[in-house]
Amino acid sequence: MTMHTALFTPIDAIGTAFSSPLGCLIAAIVLAALVLVIARRPAPGNDAIGDTSRDELRPYAAEHRGLAVAALMVLVVFLGEFIVRGHLVPGISLPWWRFAIPLIVATIGLAVVAALITTRGMPHVTEPMSPTPRRGWRSFSSPRALTGAGVAILLLIITTVGAGSVSSTDDDGRYAMLAIPVPNAPHVDPLRFSFYGWAYGIPVLFGLTAVALATGVVLHLNAARRFQRTQTIATETVARRRTAQASVALLTAAVLASLAEAWRQIGGVGSPSSLTVMGDAGDVTYETPWRFAELAAALRWCAPALEVVALAILVVLIVSGVRAQRGPRMTAAGRSSRSGSIG
Q1: pLDDT of res. 96
Q2: Residue 293 · residue 191 · CB < 8 Å
Q3: What does the domain layout of the chain look like in residue ranges?
């Protein structure tokens, strides 16, 4: 028997160009460059960094560096897994970690950042201060960024539960297949495709829970620690905001990368539109519609966009971390205030 698919069109050629993480990486670098150029414009509230010393920001340097390294590891492992599976070891069966690996690596990175905050990021209080407003895990985070992360998490949960509910078992009893029956032909075996079923979705849900908890721990530790002194509250607020924003961005990038891979796998199903069975009495063609074929096609086209955004976020985090290691530049006011306090 043979399966018939739609003809290859120029639009399909564009989709092919973005059919792998390597193709999306090029677009992601361009997008990240635009974001970084825009981000270099002075923003209100960031001037405090210029009027402080390296010593006052040193407790935050390790965690900022750790977040950049975590973003680099997610990018390297995500792309490396694709290269190994798709090129160096051809023919390897679809592994469960393909979808969960960004979440796993991000969880490890955020756990390291939480440890850095606990061991090296607790500023030394140099003078008594008046009580400050109570701070929570959302204190230094952007509501817009938290909303974006929440939407990404919700989409991944809906995708995983929805795909898992329509999946079927393979020869090993794993829910890793999709069976599309041929209408009005019970004597013809259903079409079976490798699918984002529970075999892959359950590890993703565990990874999603872990990375969300790790992010929450980092945000809590980042907010709960005390300030050094009254004069450094503005400076430390900027530094803590950077930690919170980078942590949420890393979470969002990992979730979007996993979601993109899931949508790619789902989008590859349902393209066959008919099945031809060859027999002694002649060839018989059956239509093989799938009720979610249109949705799968839409997810196929949306997946590269998600992947470009995820990779762009990682690139921005890496470059921003490198820039931060250059250290703040003290203004004349900052130098004079420090020199006047000596002796």
Answers
A1: 78
A2: no
A3: 20-335
Q: What is the pLDDT of residue 44?
A: 45
Handedness of CA 73, 74, 78, 81 (dihedral sign): positive
Q: To the nearest whole percent, how much of the chain has pLDDT over 90?
A: 41
Q: What is the pLDDT of residue 248?
A: 97
- Please name which of 253, 222, 213, 245 lies closest in space to residue 107, comparing C-alpha atoms: 213
Amino acid, single-letter form, for residue 1: M
Parts of the chain with a pLDDT under 70: 1-19, 41-56, 86-93, 124-134, 182-188, 270-290, 325-343
pLDDT on residue 198: 94
Count Cα atoms within 13 angstroms, Cβ side, for 136: 1
Place of tokens 């938290």: 146
Q: 131-138, long-range: CB within 8 Å, 24+ apart, which pairs? A: 132/227, 132/233, 135/223, 135/224, 136/220, 136/223, 137/216, 137/219, 137/220, 137/223, 138/219, 138/223
Q: Look at residue 210 in the predicted model and tell me its pLDDT.
A: 97
Query: What pLDDT, on a 0 to 100 scale, did the predictor assign at position 237?
Result: 86
- What does R_g of the chain's alpha carbons equal in angstroms? 25
Residue 194, pLDDT score: 84
Q: 155: which 2 tokens?
A: 């989409």
Give the global pTM.
Answer: 0.82
